[in-house]
Amino acid sequence: MTRREREREREREREHDHDHEKSCPLDANIYATRKTVAQGMMDIALLTANASQLKHVLATAETHDYYLINLILIGTSMTLQIMVGILLVVVGRWNINKRKQQNIANVTNNIIVILIFLITVVNVLITAFGDEEPDYVINDKQWQNTRKDYVSDDMYRLDRELKSAANNTEI
């Protein structure tokens, strides 16, 4: 084969590759991998939120009305999220372009969807049994006690100032 023939052959291959790229459908494996990574990121975000909720419940154990229920629900949610995370790592490693791995990936993906549904239900229950009011809201009883503290502090300060003024005028 001459040099000119080889160049023509290479040119035809480049044209064929270029045409193939245009007509080639979406690579399902790349799409599935990206979807799995996105699901994993959402799982991490929810796990972080649940860890924060767990910290709050443990910090307010004495005053929390539904302490045990919230503890169980948050623990269940976090356990399910860890299971989903592990399954996502496993599914992300499979190549769904291979026939053997398609069926197991499909079954595992269905399990993940069911677990995510359960996580959603559990987190709705966590919200339902959460604190009635956030920490930064002061209820009427706290407000009255706070006002009494301010008044007694003011009375104490005023009394001190009067005694100090009386001592200064006597001299």
Protein described:
With 171 residues, this protein is an all-alpha fold. It has helices at 3-23, 28-59, 67-93, 99-128, 140-170. α2 (28-59) runs antiparallel to α3 (67-93) and α3 packs antiparallel against α4 (99-128). The radius of gyration is 33 Å and the shape is elongated. 13% of the residues are buried. Keywords: Cell adhesion, Membrane, Transmembrane, Transmembrane helix. It is found in: Membrane. Residues 1-22 are annotated as: Disordered.
Biggest pleated sheet: none
Structural class: mainly alpha
Low-pLDDT ranges: none
Strand portion: under 5%
**Total beta-strand segments:** 0
Helicity range of the residues? over 70%
The SSE string, one letter per element, is: HHHHH
Quaternary organization: single chain
Q: Using the alpha-carbon principal axes, give the shape.
A: elongated
Rounded average pLDDT? 79
Report Rg.
Answer: 33 Å
Distance between the termini: 122 Å
Q: Counting H and I runs of at least 4 residues, what is the number of helices?
A: 5
Note the main attributes of this structure.
single chain; 171 residues; mainly alpha; 0% strand
Write the layout of secondary structure elements.
Blueprint: H1 3-23, H2 28-59, H3 67-93, H4 99-128, H5 140-170
Helix pairs in contact: 2-3, 3-4
In short:
With 171 residues, this protein is mainly α.
